[in-house]
Amino acid sequence: MSTPGSSTSTGSSSGASSGASRSSHRRARAREAALARAVEDGLLGPRSPLVGLLDVDGVLAAVGALNEAFEGPAPVHHTFAAKACGLVPVLRLLADAGMGCEVASPGELEQALAAGFTYDRLVFDSPAKTVEELEFALARGIAINLDNFQELARVDRLLAGREAAGPIGLRVNPQVGAGAIGAMSTATATSKFGIALRDPGAVDAVIDAFAHRPWLDRLHAHVGSQGCPLPLIAEGVRAAYELAERVNAELGRAQITGLDIGGGLPVNFDDEDDRPTYADYVAELRGAAPGLFDGRYTLVTEFGRSLLAKSGTIGTVVEYTKSAGGRRIAVTHAGAQVATRTAFMPDAWPLRVGVFDAEGRPKRGPAEVVDIAGPCCFAGDLTATARALPAVEPGDVVALYDTGAYYFSSHFSYNSLPRPAVYGYRTDPGGRVRFALVREAQSVRGVVEESGLSQADALVALRAT
Ligand SMILES: Cc1ncc(COP(=O)(O)O)c(C=O)c1O
Q1: The pTM is what?
Q2: What is the mean pLDDT of residues 434-443?
Q3: Cα-flanking dihedrals φ and ψ of residue 47, to 5°?
């Protein structure tokens, strides 16, 4: 389905999809109501021209769909990949909904702890864990996925013969190939992640690693993120499953008890529908590796984008419109600082765009072709190019849809632009919108402070010595 005043990433302004579910209709209605209310309340307007909005019910519906899809005899521990939206209130909402959390940096770990995740609900990834980080996780029984043989040897030294307090896995790269976006594909022949399974001797080395370490009890594979088709992801998961079967068979004991299958369910950025669904993914996995679900292994998942993306919206005010070389351009306040991937790789990360008037009502009327530009000082700072949209005028509101993951939460500080405020919203059955502040807008003073204000004299003083 598409909404009035919107355009899909392919430039069409219609394109109703017959498969639109009730939940995607609800989401579109709630988003429209939230944008109008945000304008009315002044959360979005001339004095606050950029805001991130998150549909709380949409997030919870995604969690519900995930749980439902994986229901069955196998115990499942669903974790949210904190990198997708490292905002403490969002993490707390997910903790409250029963999720665990996958973290891949000390900052994400602290955010997850601040959100209330207990140690046993965390999974610690990252290809570059320091000794200190490993010690922290080992001492608290946080599940860890080790990335390489050097890290294994480091953990040998840190444990010094002691039992591990929590699950410890080994990340493998099944080398099944790339999806549509190279930078999102973690199972290529030369990917930096995990142990490259198809390299000569790798499988034997992994079996040997398990044979000598009774505390090593999980395998981890994350094939990739956006752009990876389900059969490719399933092929990678099957390789990890088959390796677990082989390790356990060769060791004559069920040492591997957990399979962490990562995240990576792609998101549909073309229209409102959730496509593929978690149920589609589980069906694909059941076809590729039926034994995965029979209850012998605890399954761990690490979804990020698919849980949050479609519940997020960036709202921004159109400051000016102009034309250049026959092309209409609308200059907004949302650019590479909040839509980094779209600005730098527009073909890989197209976004749907909606246009609303200064009261936040969807604009209608004949379409004109326009570029939607951001405020950053480089030519590629565009969130949409040559898009057919109702005429855009100064003071209008532009909405960038499906931006709940890796967009307003993953700020890029180019041009020292401040991080925008983020609000969560719910609508009651009467359509009334309620907001909750998730993150305050960063002040310009805050930008200056974090750019070394307290060290302002440092270099002049150094030169003077
Ligand atoms: C190890 C790992 N797990 C999970 C994820 C989350 O992936 P997605 O947001 O595509 O579900 C990522 C993304 O980079 C990752 O690297």
Answers
A1: 0.95
A2: 98
A3: -90, -10
**Residue 353 dihedral angles phi and psi, to the nearest 5°:** -125, 140
- Order of strands across the sheet with 327-331? 320-324, 327-331, 367-373, 382-390
pLDDT per residue as tens digits for the range 114-160: 999 999 999 999 999 999 999 999 999 999 999 999 999 999 999 99
Residue 387 backbone phi and psi in degrees, to 5: -100, 135
Cα separation of 226 and 310, whole Å? Answer: 13
Distance CA 420, CA 289 (A): 44
Distance of alpha carbon 450 from alpha carbon 446, whole angstroms:
6
Q: Ligand 1 pocket check: which of 147, 171, 225, 406 to mutate, most ligand atoms within 8 Å of Cβ? A: 225
Check residue 430 and give its pLDDT.
84
How far, in Å, are 2, 4, 38, 195, 356 from residue 361 at the CA level? Answer: 15, 10, 11, 52, 5
Task: Using DSSP bridges, classify how beta strands 168-173 and 397-401 pair: parallel, antiparallel or unpaired.
Answer: unpaired
Q: Are 403 and 309 in contact (CB under 8 A)?
A: yes
Using the atom order of ligand 1, give the atom closest to the CA of residue 104: 1
Q: Using the atom order of ligand 1, give the atom closest to the CA of residue 304.
A: 9
Token couple for 146: 């080790």
Question: Is the beta carbon of 80 within 6 A of some atom in ligand 1?
Answer: no
How far is Cα 120 from Cα 123, in angstroms, rounded to an integer? 8
| CB-CB contact of 274 with 27 (8 Å) | no
